[in-house]
Amino acid sequence: MTTIQVGRIVVKTNGREAGKKAVIVDLINPNYVLVTGPKTITSVRRRRCNIGHIEPTDKVISIKRDASDEEVIAAIEKDKMKEYMEEAIVPKV
Fold first, then answer.
1. Backbone angles phi, psi at 84, to 5 degrees
2. Which of these, 29, 72, 36, 68, lies nearest to 51 by C-alpha position?
């Protein structure tokens, strides 16, 4: 079972960004996380997100808590996951 943690790649399931992938950058409280696409890769901008509106994947990148978008992009490219991040997924309803 996957968990909510910094660096976990998730799929947004609600809102205008539904089906797009993002990376958890920070844990705000038990109900909210800070995610980023980053916008240049997946068009998901950095924002607070309810954990009920994301679906964790089995993939994790190595980033520090509250990493900048540039650091997230570097980690994605280092792990060769840019193509994976760009793929949109049809969310389960």
1. -60, -40
2. 29
CB distance 14 to 62 below 8 Å: no
Max intra-chain CA distance, the chain: 33
Cα distance between residue 68 and residue 63, in whole Å = 9
Cα Rg of the chain (Å, integer):
12
Give pLDDT tens digits for 30-78: 999 999 989 999 999 999 999 999 999 999 999 999 999 999 999 999 9
In three-state secondary structure terms, 4 is coil
Which domains, ranges and CATH numbers included, belong to the chain? Answer: 8-84 (2.30.30.30)
